[in-house]
Amino acid sequence: MISRTTIGRSFGGVVRYQFEGRKEQPSDKQAEVLVAVGVRSDSAAHMSADFNRGRQLNPNLGQAVWHTSLSFNPDDAAKLDSVKMLAIAEGYVQKMGLDKTQYAIIRHHDQPD
Predict the structure, then answer these.
(1) What is the pTM of this model?
(2) Cβ–Cβ contacts within 10 Å for residue 76, how many?
């Protein structure tokens, strides 16, 4: 597994990608919300608003967006269903100390298996 983290200021862009994906991808390749904690998962607007509401509780926090991509070996694709990926991602969130805040775990389907 390889992780790649970016830190930023805008929830809007990262949340929109979760719901809209890449415009050229077919609908069956769109992202899947596996879990959302402290935020609604029914729309990009709601999720972004909820994250921003949480940010208002800590006005001194400059870069509040933590986005991590976990990438797996394509040879493991058959073993990695959404349940297994959720367990791995929740373990990652906990070990990084992010489990006491708002977060969403999203599975992307826009890369070839």
Answers:
(1) 0.84
(2) 11
